[in-house]
From TrEMBL:
Name the record gives this protein: Aspartyl-tRNA(Asn)/glutamyl-tRNA(Gln) amidotransferase subunit A
Lineage summary: Bacteria, Bacillati, Actinomycetota, Actinomycetes, Geodermatophilales
Source species, domain of life: Bacteria
Transferase among keywords: yes
Domain Amidase positions: 15-371
Keywords: Transferase
Stretches the record annotates as Disordered: 1-23
Family that this chain belongs to: Belongs to the amidase family.
GO molecular function: transferase activity
Pfam family, one: Amidase
Length: 393
């Protein structure tokens, strides 16, 4: 039963060929083309849009044996972090239906947590895989930018768009990453990192309950903790907003001009913000992104990985009157790594001491170093059982 409203469309397809993902039930965020029915982007504009072929990522996963069973809810056009602005209706959190699942890939996180699918595809521009993974207590990968093809995925911002997997275990996420990138290498052995960098600028204003769970997770790793300071890291949110909103206004210009009333009100506000961003301002943001990328790469030189909480707050309750404020707060810790070229793994590490809701961390590694993250995540899941807990039925 989908009490979280995570599914947009059930899919019934012939049995896929045998492969490394045989027996895995797959769900796909509904901004990723799935032929044979509407791929709606959770928008009234696309209610009847039927692609004539699958996205490349769908083709690869089915070719490896995964059984596609559903397309999944999202924030309209992947805009937003709460998944309350969907033409299919709000998606809820399986752990507590009064709370958000995170977004924009909320249906992907919720469907995995609820056991509706084993593996889900999401997209991540500013945190849209990592936030649902954290809110719903599952694993999610924002891959190295450009390592997984985006053909057949509706765009938000090419500079920072990615598509990646969510699952309950690091092992399944890693297997999916191999298929999605075309890699034939074996999975890494579990291994704890020896040196973990903690970006000190991102420690301020984190909820004490969240921080306590994160600190306990760091202790499990038993690594040397290295304070790291990255110049300009706190500018990441403004850089992401400038890039994303400018591109959204361009992508949706015709829809904004002709039928703005068909957008969900929250989406309309967000997309409309980009109309005031001039090309020189966007160009300056792109330059700032490149400079910050270089500084993040330099910070990774002396450590195995960087670690932060995924969110600075407990999982928020669904409040339609407070969406923009909540959105700015939720993405504070994900935006910096959206500007990094390398991968970030969202990993569930415990539960909030007051609310009982999931808490997650982000592990960030250099470009193309997904295996560093997988080794650490596999090791952590060997030592703990947080990922084995299930939402109440």
């Amino acid at each position: 039963m989908d009490g979280a409203n995570s599914v947009i469309r059930r899919v019934d397809r012939p049995e896929p060929p045998a492969g490394p993902l045989s027996g895995v039930r797959l769900g796909v965020k509904d901004n990723v083309d799935v032929a044979g029915g509407p791929t709606t982007c959770a928008s009234a504009f696309f209610a009847s849009r039927v692609p004539d072929q699958d996205a490349e990522v769908v083709r690869r996963l089915e070719g490896a044996g995964a059984s596609l069973v559903a397309t999944l809810n999202l924030s309209e056009f992947a805009v937003g972090v709460t998944n309350q602005n969907s033409a299919a209706g709000p998606c809820r959190n399986p752990w507590d239906p009064s709370r958000i699942p995170g977004g924009s890939s909320g249906g992907s996180g919720a469907a995995v947590a609820a056991g509706i699918v084993d593996l889900a595809l999401g997209t991540d521009t500013g945190g849209s895989i990592r936030l649902p993974a954290s809110c719903c207590g599952v694993v999610g990968l924002r891959p190295t930018h450009g390592s997984i093809p985006l053909h057949g995925v509706f765009p938000v911002c090419d500079d920072v768009d990615t598509v990646g997997p969510l699952a309950r275990t690091v092992s399944l996420v890693a297997q999916a990453q191999r298929v999605l990138t075309g890699s034939v290498s074996a999975l890494p052995e579990p291994a704890a990192p020896r040196r973990i960098g903690i970006p000190v600028q991102l420690l301020d204003d984190v909820d004490p309950g969240v921080q306590a769970v994160v600190d306990a997770a760091v202790a499990v790793f038993g690594a040397e903790v290295v304070p790291v300071e990255v110049e300009g890291l706190l500018d990441a949110q403004d850089i992401v907003y400038t890039l994303v909103y400018a591109d959204l206004a361009r992508i949706h210009a015709a829809r904004l001009a002709s039928e703005p009333e068909r957008f969900h009100p929250d989406s309309l506000v967000r997309i409309g913000l980009g109309r005031g961003i001039a090309p020189p301002e966007r160009a300056a943001a792109a330059e700032a992104r490149a400079a910050l990328q270089a500084r993040i790469s330099a910070a990774l030189d002396g450590v195995d990985l960087l670690l932060t909480s995924t969110m600075p707050v407990d999982v928020p309750r669904a409040d339609p009157d407070d969406v923009l404020r909540v959105s700015r707060r939720l993405g504070q810790l994900t935006y910096p790594w959206s500007l990094h070229a390398g991968p970030t793994l969202a990993l569930p590490v415990g539960f909030h001491p007051v609310s009982g809701m999931p808490v997650g961390i982000q592990l960030t590694a250099p470009e193309d170093a997904e295996d560093v993250l997988f080794a650490a995540g596999l090791w952590f899941q060997q030592q703990t059982d947080h990922h084995t807990r299930r939402p109440p039925r």
